[in-house]
Design goal:
The complex is a heterodimer of chains A (155) and B (418). In chain A, helix 2 crosses helix 3, helix 3 packs parallel to helix 6 and helix 4 packs antiparallel against helix 6. Chain A has six helices and three strands. In chain A, a hairpin with a 2-residue loop joins strand 2 and strand 3. Chain A has one domain: Sufe protein. Chain: A, CATH 3.90.1010.10. Chain B folds into two domains: 135 residues, Alpha-Beta Complex (Aspartate Aminotransferase, domain 1); 260 residues, Type I PLP-dependent aspartate aminotransferase-like (Major domain) (Aspartate Aminotransferase, domain 2, 3-Layer(aba) Sandwich). In chain B, a hairpin with a 3-residue loop joins strand 1 and strand 2. In chain B, helix 4 runs parallel beside helix 5, helix 10 packs parallel to helix 13 and helix 11 packs across helix 13. Classes of the chains: A alpha+beta (155), B alpha/beta (418). At the A-B interface, helix 1 of A face helix 11 of B.
Amino acid sequence: MELDSLYQEVILEHYKRPLNKALSANPLVQVHHINTSCGDEITLNLDMDGEVIKSITWDGVGCSISQASTSVVSDLLSGKTSSEAMALIEEFQVMLQSKGSDLGNEDNLGDGVAFAGVAKFPARVKCALLGWMASKDAISQAVAKINGLSSEEKR
Amino acid sequence: MNTQFDVSAVRSDFPILDRLIRGNNRLVYLDSGATSQKPVSVLDAEREFYTKHNAAAHRGAHQLAEEATELFEGAREKVATFLGAKSEAIVFTKSATESINLVAYSLGNALPGSKFHIKPGDRIVVSEMEHHANLIPWQELAKRTGAELVWFSVDPNGRLDLSNISDLINEKTKVVALTHQSNVLGTINPINEIAKQVRKVGAFFVLDACQSVPHFAVQVSELDIDFMAFSGHKMLAPTGVGVLWGRQELLDEMPPFLTGGSMIETVSMESATYLPAPKRFEAGVPNMAQVVGLGAAVDYLNKLGMENIHNHEIQLTKLAIDGLSQIKGLQIIGPTNLEMRGGVVSFAIEGVHPHDLGQALDQYGIAVRTGHHCAWPLIKKFKVVATTRASLYLYNNTADIEALVSGVERARDYFVGR
């Protein structure tokens, strides 16, 4: 059935048992993103260990696609450097905007490739991107914060 | 079923209903609250305007301009008769949203001393069940003028809580803006009961009739209100045309909103004077073909009879509420009795997000709306993230409702049962 191409088993698994869905205390950066067209929203906390992402934790409400996708990204980016993470987010975004022609590289995106089918449902692309865009925002803020701190230290 | 209402004959007037969706599924269109489908007679009227009579109404010294003007004003006449109003009190806008903004901006433009002037300490009353189109313009007017915005609450059954009406609508109140029928809950509000208090304090009563005028007989002479806004596209007409009805004596005195050509009486380089309504509020070349289409839509509705349409929709609403209520974990958001209620049914199911439900229904050919329905505060009030909404119209039949109920069951099994 067509529905199964959208709702891969791995997506439903992440939806039912989301990873990292408990906000950490005192995060380096916290962001709050909303999908204004449907009201889905997430709060996402990011902690860094130098250049490396220590943890991404989150909480929120939304459809299975947005919840599962946030679960996947929070797991995938942990342990990556900020520039590796940004490249993966870019790769995921390109896959979702490919209208289904880009099936994604599982070596890089892991469970993220399960969302390749979402690209064929234009109305749902935003759902799949919610957690990834929140992560991108959080990482940029964290990098700016760290650079700001180190330049202050130099002074 | 209703013997005076032949739904299969009605359906044959709407070619889009023959479409197959996502493969081989019959289209089950249950999103008329967002926009209605259009009968052939409306499409023909619009096309005929362009193929035979197109010219700028109220301008030009030629035959086509004369015909365009006659058709445009003829449509105004039809809309006026449909509402039991005078045609001078019917203003064409581009949308109901513009109609409401027209009133809000016009009041905001009134100078001190004018009976329309809004000042700090004045009060504007809305309700928690307003569509954003009848909330944000008043929020903004309140900000611009320093007036206070207050609102009626909605009770757990989806009805307006009127217990504090005389506190809310008091001598400070300048404007009361309420919906006739909720686009999320289906609730029809007791307008004349509220109007008594509005009259007592001398405020203006603005009615959002987007979900009522298309679905049951609305006569302005029977409603004790001052302004009423609705859109054409929810009542079989093309997009791009909204209506504002207002009390003639108010419209003629109110400051203009959009200014420019067609609405002036005299113009010098320094200033201008303005025509009375409706021209006062119709700056620029209007959406003529769309207005003519609205006239054809009114003809179509009159031919069927608004009472027959309402009865048909209520029978289907009963079927939908009865059927959906049987589904495990499903909660109807809004009144479950049919008193003072229209054909909009919102619901939530435990464990299935509305977006996922809407996606599954779409795969079965069933078109519904999911989300906050441009009524975010109301959705939050009911403590759900979003709802799924089925909204009915005259072309829906019992097979549509059966498809909805079984589609929701199937979708529930897919997400919860797996």
